[in-house]
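> call design_seq(struct)
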């Protein structure tokens, strides 16, 4: 509920695809909670909208929220990308409590 309130108030969101080098930082997010873990991390910068972008991420999208719509017990947010940053980095996927490396397809 607090995340929904923060999104509504700020009107911005960042989508960051984490890279291999963020493994320990992602672990701290899982253990401390995303907002607290991110606040303690020095690996980010503010985007043009003010949304937090991870340094050296595979992809970072700095977005403004356009709309939110309740779908049952969920809220679906639609955002417009204002800036996009991409790097050549191998990604990480968090699923089922585990971090998994995403390998490039040949």
């Amino acid at each position: 509920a607090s995340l929904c309130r923060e999104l509504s108030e700020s009107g911005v969101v960042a989508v960051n695809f984490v890279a291999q080098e963020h493994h320990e930082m992602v672990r701290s997010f899982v253990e401390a909670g995303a907002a607290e873990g991110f606040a303690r991390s020095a690996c980010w910068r503010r985007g043009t909208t003010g949304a937090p972008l991870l340094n050296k991420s595979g992809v970072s999208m700095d977005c403004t929220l356009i709309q939110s719509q309740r779908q049952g017990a969920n809220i679906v947010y639609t955002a417009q990308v204002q800036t996009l940053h991409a790097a050549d980095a191998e990604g990480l996927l968090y699923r089922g409590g585990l971090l998994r490396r995403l390998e490039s397809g040949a």
